[in-house]
Amino acid sequence: MPKKIQKGLLACLFIPVAVFGRENNDSRDSIPPGGQHHTTPVKPRHSPVKVQFGTASYYSDKFEGRKTYTDEIFSQEKLTGASNTLPMHTWVRVTNLRNNRTVVVQINDKMHPRNRRLIDLTRAAAEQLGYAGRGLTRVRVDVLKKKPAGTAGESITKESPGQD
Fold this sequence. Notes:
The protein is of the alpha/beta class and 164 residues long. The chain contains 2 helices and 6 strands.
């Protein structure tokens, strides 16, 4: 058989194998960026999230005195927040990733549905975290199981490890 025909037949044999093999074994959804397999099961989107990372902002003064999603009257002096991903009345510890300062707030409001930020805090909470002058900061949000003892509007500040 001439070499041209042999090459043509080999090409015809390998194309379907490559195409069908890729379709049947395509696991791009199960492999995260970086090419490593994800070995733990992925939780459904509706299950509660324990830790989240994202951007925090703080409320504009125009919301002062308005009702929140939970019908409370909004005040910049309270330690509360708004989130589109957390249930109402959830207590969370927000940590500013720039300076490691933390504050405990209760979620009592929702943000605009198109807002991509993780949490929107009151000015009092933003000042405790040290980003009131900046407007935005990267944060870690830890969901707490219940209201922390001794946090009747108090903040928790942790500047450096080992400090009491």
